[in-house]
Design brief:
heterodimer, A: mainly alpha, Sodium/glucose cotransporter, 23 helices, B: mainly alpha, 2 domains, 0% strand, elongated
Chain lengths: 497, 113
C-alpha cells in the first residue's frame, strides 16, 4: 500500500506542475514547443527526464540479471547518442526553425509526400517506444499493489493522456524536469542505502565473478547465447547511439531552446545527467544477480531488490521509493512520446489543428495501451531496442545527410526511408515470428541496425544522384550552418522573445 | 511551353504552410513562426559548412574509435574487472568528446574566416 501511496504522490505532483503550466498552451506552437520560452537548464533536465525511461530504470537492471554484465552497453549507447546529437543535429536543427522531423523534411526537401511519410515513421518509432513504457507501468503497479496487469496499463494510459491533453509541452517541460529529479532521488538514494544494507558478503558477491559463470561476467552482450557476443554488442551500440540521434521526441526538444549555441550545450548537459543516472540501475542489476537471481519477470528486478535485501519496514519504504521512481520514468517518457506521436498524427499527417492534436494524444494512448496488453511477456529493452533500430535506420540518415550533404534530394530521402524503415521493422518482426537457431542470422534479425543503417545511408545517397537538386536546396543547407555573428540580431530576438 | 514555378525560401515555405493551417482552422496563431527572410552571406556560410563538417566528421570518427577501444578494454579486462570498465570509463570519455566538439564548433562560429 505504501508503494501505491508514493506512486500517487508522484502522480499528483505531476498534475499540479502540469496545470501550473496550462496557461501557456494556447496555439499549436505553444502546445508543441512551448513557443521557445524554455530556459536551457530546464531543457537539459527535461530531455534527460524524458529520455531516462522504463528501459533504463527497470529494463537495464533486469537485462543485467538475465543476460549478464554486457547489458551495460545499452546505457553506454543511450548516452553516446548525445555526442552525435551535439555534433550533428542540435545546432543546425534549431536553426532550421522546424518543429518536428517531418517539418525538417519539408524545410529541407520541400515535398509534402515525404513529410507524410516521415509522419508515419514517427508513429512506428513512437509506438515501439510507448508499448514497453505501458508494460512497465503495468508490472510495477501489479507488484506493489496487486492490481491486475491490464488494469494498471489502462489506468496509466488514462492518467498520461489527460495530463498531456490538458497541458501540452510547456507543462511537460517542467513536469519532466521534475521527473528527472524524482528518478535520480528515488533510484539513487535507495541504491546507496542498499549498498550499505547488503553487507560485506553480498557486496563482495555482487562484484566477484568467482561463483558466477564466465559467460555472465563477460562484458559483452551475448543475446540468447548466440555465440557471437562481439557482433551482438556492436549491433546494439550502432542502434542505440545512432538511434538516439533520430528519435523524434528528442529532436523536438531542441526547438524549445533559445538558439543553436544553446541547443548544442543542452546536448552536452544531457550527457552529464545521463552518465550520472545510469550508474544506479547497474547497482540494482549487480545486487539483483545476488539476491534475486531468478525473478518471475525480468523487468521487475529493480523493484524486487530492496525487499530482498532489507525485509520489514525499511525494505517496504525503499521499495515504495523505487516503485515511485520507476513510475516517474514511465510517466515522463510516455508523455513526451505521446506528444511527439500526436504531433506526427495531427501536425504532419493531417495538417495541424489543436483539437486534432488532443485527439491524437487520445488515439495514440489507446493504441499503445491495446498493444501493451499482449506484450506483457516481452522484455522492455527488446522493444525499446527496436525503436532505436528503426530511428537509426530512418531519421538518422535523413538528418545526417539532410544537414551536412547538399546532394540529398526528396527522391533519395524517400527511397532511403522506405528501405530503412522496411528493413528494420521487417527484421524485428521476422525475429518474433520466425523461430531461428541462435546464431549470426538470429542476431542480425533481432538487432538489425548493423546492416540496415548502412543500407539506408547508401540508398539515400545513390537514389539522390540522378535527380536534379532544386536551386533553393543550397540555401536550405547553408542557412543551417550560418555563423552566429552574421545572424546575431535574429538570435538575440529569439532569446528575448 | 514553359511552366511558371514559384520560388520560395524553405523557411518561408514552412511559415506559409503554418499560416495556411491557421487560416484553415479559422484562428490566428499567437506564436510567431521564425521567419528569416534576410539575404545570407553565401560565401561565409559555405566556409562555415565546410569547417563545421570537418569537425563533425572528426567527432564521429573519434566516437567510433572510443567505443571500439572501450569494447576491447572491457573484454580484455575480462570477468573480474570487465564490469568496472563499463561502469566507470564510458561516461567521462563521452562527455569529453561532446564538450570538445562544442567548444570547437563555437570557436568556428566566433571566428568566421
Amino acid at each position: 500500500m505504501i508503494g501505491l501511496a508514493s506512486i500517487s504522490l508522484v502522480l499528483i505532483s505531476s498534475v499540479v506542475i502540469g496545470v501550473w503550466g496550462v496557461r501557456a498552451a494556447r496555439s499549436t506552437p505553444d502546445f508543441l514547443v512551448a513557443s521557445r520560452r524554455i530556459v536551457p537548464g530546464w531543457n537539459a533536465l527535461a530531455i534527460a527526464g524524458e529520455y531516462v525511461s522504463a528501459a533504463s530504470v527497470l529494463g537495464l537492471a533486469g537485462l543485467l540479471v538475465k543476460n549478464g554484465v554486457g547489458a551495460m552497453w545499452y546505457a553506454v549507447g543511450f548516452t553516446g547518442g548525445y555526442v552525435l546529437v551535439a555534433a550533428l543535429v542540435a545546432g543546425p536543427m534549431r536553426r532550421s526553425g522546424a518543429y518536428t522531423v517531418p517539418d525538417f523534411a519539408e524545410y529541407r526537401l520541400g515535398s509534402p509526400r515525404l513529410r507524410r511519410m516521415c509522419g508515419l515513421v514517427v508513429l512506428v518509432i513512437m509506438l515501439l517506444y510507448l508499448i514497453p513504457q505501458f508494460k512497465a507501468a503495468g508490472v510495477v503497479l501489479e507488484l506493489v499493489s496487486g492490481i491486475p496487469y491490464w488494469v494498471g496499463v489502462v489506468g496509466a494510459g488514462l492518467v498520461v493522456a489527460s495530463t498531456i491533453a490538458v497541458g501540452g509541452m510547456r507543462a511537460a517541460t517542467y513536469v519532466q524536469a521534475f521527473h528527472y529529479m524524482v528518478k535520480l532521488a528515488f533510484i539513487a538514494v535507495p541504491a546507496l542505502f542498499l549498498i550499505f544494507l547488503a553487507g560485506p558478503a553480498r557486496r563482495a558477491a555482487a562484484i566477484n565473478p568467482a561463483e558466477v559463470d564466465a559467460e555472465w561476467m563477460r562484458p559483452l552482450l551475448d543475446l540468447d547465447g548466440s555465440g557471437h557476443p562481439v557482433l551482438a554488442t556492436v549491433s546494439v551500440l550502432v542502434a542505440t547511439t545512432l538511434g538516439a540521434m533520430g528519435l523524434p521526441h528528442v529532436v523536438m526538444r531542441f526547438h524549445t531552446v533559445a538558439g543553436a549555441r544553446a541547443a548544442r550545450r543542452v546536448a552536452v548537459g544531457v550527457i552529464v545527467l545521463l552518465g550520472g543516472f545510469y550508474l544506479f540501475p547497474i547497482v540494482y542489476g549487480l545486487l539483483g544477480r545476488v539476491v534475486a537471481p531468478n525473478p518471475a519477470e525480468t523487468d521487475i528486478v529493480t523493484v524486487l531488490v530492496p525487499g530482498e535485501i532489507a525485509p520489514g519496514a525499511v525494505g517496504a519504504v525503499l521499495t515504495a521509493l523505487v516503485a515511485a521512481g520507476a513510475f516517474a520514468a514511465f510517466l515522463s517518457t510516455s508523455s513526451g512520446l505521446l506528444l511527439a506521436l500526436a504531433g506526427g498524427l495531427s501536425h504532419d499527417l493531417f495538417g495541424g489543428s489543436l483539437p486534432r492534436l488532443r485527439l491524437g494524444v487520445a488515439a495514440g494512448t489507446g493504441l499503445a495501451v491495446a498493444l501493451a496488453l499482449p506484450a506483457a511477456g516481452v522484455d522492455i529493452n527488446v522493444l525499446v531496442g527496436w525503436a532505436f533500430a528503426v530511428a537509426a535506420s530512418t531519421f538518422c540518415p535523413l538528418l545526417a545527410l539532410g544537414i551536412w550533404w547538399r546532394g540529398l534530394t526528396a527522391t533519395g530521402a524517400t527511397v532511403g526511408l522506405l528501405i530503412g524503415a522496411g528493413a528494420s521493422t521487417g527484421a524485428a518482426l521476422a525475429s518474433v515470428f520466425i523461430d531461428l537457431e541462435p546464431g549470426v542470422v538470429s542476431i542480425l534479425l533481432s538487432q538489425p541496425a548493423l546492416w540496415t543503417v548502412p543500407m539506408a545511408f547508401t540508398a539515400m545517397i545513390l537514389a539522390s544522384r540522378p535527380s536534379e537538386i532544386p536551386e533553393w536546396a543550397d540555401e536550405a543547407v547553408l542557412r543551417l550552418h550560418l555563423p552566429t555573428r552574421s545572424r546575431k540580431s535574429v538570435d538575440a530576438r529569439e532569446e528575448t522573445d | 511551353m514553359s511552366q511558371r514555378v514559384r520560388v520560395t525560401s524553405p523557411q518561408t515555405r514552412l511559415a506559409m504552410r503554418r499560416r495556411a493551417d491557421a487560416m484553415r482552422r479559422g484562428s490566428h496563431q499567437s506564436g510567431r513562426a521564425p521567419i528569416v527572410s534576410t539575404a545570407i552571406d553565401i560565401e561565409a556560410a559555405e566556409r562555415a559548412l565546410r569547417r563545421q563538417r570537418r569537425l563533425a566528421v572528426r567527432t564521429v570518427a573519434l566516437l567510433g574509435i572510443a567505443l571500439t577501444a572501450l569494447l576491447l578494454a572491457a573484454d580484455l579486462a575480462g570477468g573480474r574487472l570487465g564490469w568496472a570498465v563499463l561502469f566507470f570509463m564510458p561516461y567521462p570519455v563521452l562527455l569529453a568528446l561532446a564538450a570538445i566538439h562544442v567548444r570547437r564548433a563555437e570557436r568556428i562560429e566566433a571566428d568566421p574566416r
